[in-house]
Amino acid sequence: MKARDHIVLGGAASFLIYPPLSPAAIVFWLASVLIDVDHYVDFVYRNGFTELRVKKMFDYHETLKGLWRRPELLHISLFHTVEFIGGFYLLGLWTGSPLMKAALMGILFHIVLDAIFMARYNILFVRAYSITEYIVRRRRLLSRGVEPEAVYREALEELKEPGGG
Question: What is the b/e burial string over 96-109, where b = at least 16 CB atoms within 10 angstroms of the residue's CB?
Fold first, then answer.
């Protein structure tokens, strides 16, 4: 799902759930958008910290869209995992903060939007939803002689080609 869509839909949802411009509404909206920072972290990590431009990150993810159907594609977005969300939930319980609750609701709203989008394109299981799931699935791919990182290297190489972003 595009960042623009998360910005607009998160803003609309925050407006419907919380009083407009209240701290909880702002936190909900920010959390529903900023959870995607993990896509930037993934991009920077995969390119060996040699490319930091946000525009290149968007180009990279656009390139990956063309590779969604590849059987070896296995993706993880760390802030979208059960472990991250569970930790965030526990932190919210520990602090008792209504703003943490609003942030958690924003994160869950984002996750639901992503799931709807991915189901629509029949790519729901391209992403691992748990770090443990990612490790298990990656090991399975490697044991069959399939290298999941090859898809990401291919996308990065495509960015380097003339006209590739």
Answer: eeeebbbbbbbbbb
